[in-house]
Amino acid sequence: MRFIDLSCSPLYRHWDRHRPTTTENNDAATAWVPDAAQGTLTADLGRAVRLAKVSPEWTRTRPVSPEVRTSLDGRHWREGTTGPARFVRVTVRSADDKKRAGIEELRVTRAK
């Protein structure tokens, strides 16, 4: 298996209104936290790959109902973390707007 560490990948792009500022700085001490109780982080892997697993590592405040979806074209999304995909989207929802959930690291494992 091969890990794609999206926190330091130059192929990492975002299309949501909650622009993360700390996901591309190669610093494990930082995390992406949306500026609202709900936020979406979208990663472009650069090309379609067959995924074995997608593993978000949450901040101390965990989301109440996270969703991980994948897409080949960035428009049509499906639930699940395996199979062919170019895009990975993680949506987090926080129970308390003052204690927002976030992502410390997003690990994507490519299938062999």
Automatic annotation (TrEMBL):
Stored InterPro entries: Galactose-bd-like_sf
Native source species: Streptomyces antimycoticus
Highest taxon of the lineage: Bacteria
SUPFAM superfamilies: Galactose-binding domain-like (SSF49785)
Protein name according to UniProt: F5/8 type C domain-containing protein
Gene3D superfamilies reported in the protein's UniProt record: Galactose-binding domain-like
